[in-house]
From TrEMBL:
Family according to the record: Belongs to the WD repeat MORG1 family.
Renumbered ranges of WD repeats: 14-55, 56-97, 98-130
Gene3D superfamilies listed in its UniProt record: YVTN repeat-like/Quinoprotein amine dehydrogenase (2.130.10.10)
PROSITE patterns for this protein: WD_REPEATS_2 (PS50082), WD_REPEATS_REGION (PS50294)
Organism encoding this protein: Datura stramonium
Lineage of the species this protein comes from: Eukaryota, Viridiplantae, Streptophyta, Embryophyta, Tracheophyta
Cellular compartments annotated: Cytoplasm
Protein name stated in the entry: WD repeat domain-containing protein 83
Keywords attached to this entry: Cytoplasm, Repeat, WD repeat
A UniProt-annotated Pfam family: WD40
Length: 367
């Protein structure tokens, strides 16, 4: 993929939010998008046609993150009201409210089978919630962090989280092992490569760092943008050939994955870019910001779709150096009761109660 094939042409501006948009996410196949923000709402869009489909209202304060299941039937959200909401997409009704965080909740994610929601909070903890039971109490609390937990990623067997304490921590739920990679700078966003082998971390020293997930080795650093005071998203393109990230000056940056050179940059917004989401298949992305607007003196009412471009490229994968053997079982997290163990067909033990994480193994990467 060359720089000219990267998205940079604005196709739609999706209007509707009455305040800053804090997150914008494609669904699993890229046909729809969700956004959330300061106006306490979640909005469902068809970004390719610029159409607003539905609004979800229930939060008492700003909505900071949203995630939808792979079958598009349920979504989860979190925000300043310290709760995690579990929604039915078609009806717009709240199925369940999960309470337990002692402060604002920064991020939420479903596991692959939508049986579990994991949330990350300002209270220095991760909490795991069972969507299949009627209980509103967490089935697991992980509180080994020293500061606010800002971002989370899930694999079939791991919970990965980035924290302001400067660490990216990986929790192996099979054996109760915690590995901590110390980057030496506050981490405000993490993202997995599409092959699952690498972790991209955005740090508040205006640097993106690429880590090998299995060893914790620092593979590359990406610089040129501004990220010192705000949470700005980062991700890899769908081919894993380029790294994309937002900047506090309203620009979007693309770096070459291997040599870390800036291959493309352009101004997408007037102020801080809060979110970047790359389409899973096409040369297309959506971004959100806190742009000022004449009708709203503090914040913009829009988020921006950058490029439904008219080109394609051949997918390739330059970083598939390590293969992680995680194909233990597709039933690993598809249990009906949060504490009930199931025998895994390809594992040598039963998956019983959630393990405790007593102390991490440290990999020091930063200064």
């Amino acid at each position: 993929m060359t720089a000219v094939q990267l998205p940079k042409q604005k196709v739609h501006v999706l209007e509707g939010h009455a305040g800053a948009v804090l997150a914008a996410r494609f669904n699993s196949n890229g046909e729809y998008a969700l956004s959330c923000g300061k106006d306490r709402t979640i909005r469902l869009w068809n970004p390719h046609r610029g159409i607003h489909i539905k609004t979800y209202k229930a939060h008492g304060r700003e909505v900071r993150d949203v995630h939808v299941t792979q079958d598009n039937s349920k979504l989860c959200s979190c925000g300043g009201d310290r709760q995690v909401f579990y929604w039915d997409v078609s009806t717009g009704h709240v199925v369940r409210k999960f309470r337990g965080h002692d402060s604002e909740v920064n991020a939420v994610k479903f596991n692959e089978y939508a049986s579990v929601v994991v949330s990350a909070g300002y209270d220095k903890s991760l909490r795991v919630w069972d969507c299949k039971s009627r209980s509103t109490e967490p089935i697991q609390i992980i509180d080994t962090f020293l500061d606010s937990v800002m971002s989370i990623c899930l694999t079939k067997t791991e919970i990965i989280a980035g924290s302001v304490d400067g660490t990216v921590r990986t929790f192996d739920i099979r054996v109760g092992r915690e590995i901590s990679d110390n980057l030496g700078q506050p981490v405000n966003c993490i993202s997995l490569s599409n092959d699952g082998n690498c972790i991209l971390a955005s740090c508040l020293d205006s640097t993106l760092r690429l880590l090998d997930k299995s060893s914790g080795e620092l593979l590359q650093e990406y610089k040129g943008h501004i990220c010192k005071s705000f949470k700005t998203d980062c991700c890899l393109t769908n081919s894993d050939a380029h790294v994309a990230g937002g900047s506090e000056d309203g620009c979007i940056y693309f770096w070459d994955l291997v040599d870390a050179s800036v291959v493309s940059s352009f101004r997408a917004h007037d102020l801080v870019v809060t979110s970047v989401s790359y389409h899973p298949k096409e040369s297309c992305m959506i971004t959100s910001s806190v742009d000022e607007d004449s009708n709203f003196p503090l914040f913009s009412t829009r988020f921006l779709s950058l490029a439904l471009c008219l080109w394609n490229w051949e997918l390739h994968d330059p970083i598939r150096k390590h293969s992680i053997a995680v194909e233990l079982s597709k039933e690993l997290w598809s249990y009906s009761d949060g504490l009930a163990g199931e025998l895994l067909p390809h594992a040598h033990h039963a998956f019983g109660p959630w393990p405790s994480f007593s102390g991490p193994v440290y990999n020091n990467i930063g200064p």
